[in-house]
Request: fold
Amino acid sequence: MKSVVTTVIAAADAAGRFPSTSDLESVQGSIQRASARLEAAEKLAANLDNVAKEAYDACIKKYPYLNNAGEANSNDTFKAKCARDVKHYMRLIQYCLVVGGTGPLDEWGIAGGREVYRALNLPTAPYVEALSFARNRGCTPRDMSAQALTEYNALLDYAINSLS
Amino acid sequence: MNNRFANLFGLSESDAIAVLDKPLDQLTEDDSRYIAASQLAFFPSEESIAALTRAIENREPSLDNRIVRRKAIESLGKLKAKSGLATIHGCLTETDDTYTIENAAWSIGEIGTEDSAILETLAQLLAVPNQSYRAIIHTIAKLDYHPALDRIQSFTEYEDKTIASAALATVYRFTGNEEVMESVMEFLFHPNVYTRRLCIQDLIDTNYYPAIPYISQAPVSLVFRMRGLRMLAEVGLPTGALQAEVIGPELEKALYDHPKDLQLIHAYDDTPAIDRLIQELYETDFARAYLATKTLIEHSDRPAVGAALLQTYQDKAREDYGAHYHVMKLLGWLRYEPGYDVLAEGLNISQPQFQKSRAAAAMALGELGDPKAIELLTPCLESPLWDLRYGAILALDKLGDRSGFDRLAEDPDWSIRAKIASLV
Reply:
């Protein structure tokens, strides 16, 4: 799994050299941000179901057409909504916070996902809208510290960018 | 185009154009230019194409605008808008944004061109670091640009096997060297889920019929297997290269989707407890879910497994289209009679993301063997969904009621006709 540390070591090893000063600075930067990332990871893990559901619900509320008869969320029995995919991306974002790199999103979420959505004609807009909502609703200090929120939002942006 | 999502956001063409044209500083919280750009793919008009082109030409660098541009490029591709080609070609210089390049490459492939300047620009991107090589290779292959062959050949052993798969398939396509296709077929059983899923696309693109029995054993969601088999059939049946009696049973195997018919690639060191196995049904990598399914089918305490399935259905599987599907299947394989009501509910679920659960529920009702399901299943023979009709045929046949089969002899779907012919 790729992280700042594994990337630096892999690059140094490929070139048969020791990590350079700038390599070590980027590792140092990643370590300095680790506590903010882990705070965000912890808060997200504790609220994963709610965050995913809230984001998905916001999307449905914004586009009430989805609740019309015969459409994606019209069945009364399933009011709780299918937040499966949003939750999947949130889980990968949480892994990225722990790893300190975008490896989990790159390897499990994005690579190939774009092609699958295109091939099956699946719309990415609901995911993008839901993740954008999650990014815009994050609030400091209510949800987490300012630094933790910065780390979390950067990964939400990364996921939005890669899905679109 | 599949129009299942055509009106997902209820936006008219003029609404979508108005939102897309709105200056960025005048957007309100309710405006989504991204959705407008994706929605215009469903409106094949000059106005729509012009609006999408204007959106691409707006180079404001914020993330919100960048994703709109990308979507607009993709929508022009879906519209096969030849007049957008020059604008899209211009985007191929934006190599610091791999996703924009990817969408541009894909759209050029959809629109089609013989312009060697455009095709050579694409081929040169293969030498630029960190690009979406797979999408670029696909377009070069689709547009038959042979001068890129040497450059594509250098990707056949690429670390990312989804890219290697596209390169190998293109080498086969351009040279006829069939040996390379062995490697593509091996990717059907690769540890990486996307490698498994995407190599099926390469087997489709090359009309590689010898892969059919392997595709039907690949441990990926049945959606990918059935799509691969049906797309191969669409090309192979009319030309006579394939016979319905040969590919039909493979398709049925994929739809039936029993884990015993799959080559599973994971194994447990120790058999996990029922709760842990149930949790695996929520995995997005279906290879793991199929291993759990197989283990649950073989479990010695069937009533406990059945009860755990109903419990997880009530707790969260009814909201999760992956686990929902596996619960339907398992209730059938276990012949768990208390699951009847859940299956009856699954048979009529209307949300599109749960579509595969409907045929699964039909077949599971057949497994349960209760004749009272006949009246639920009979109307499914009229469903517009081929897989639900097929599932209902299998179930009704198991329940001993073939009374509705005659009128399916002229069904619009070849697989249904072949099945009925084999039964009558």
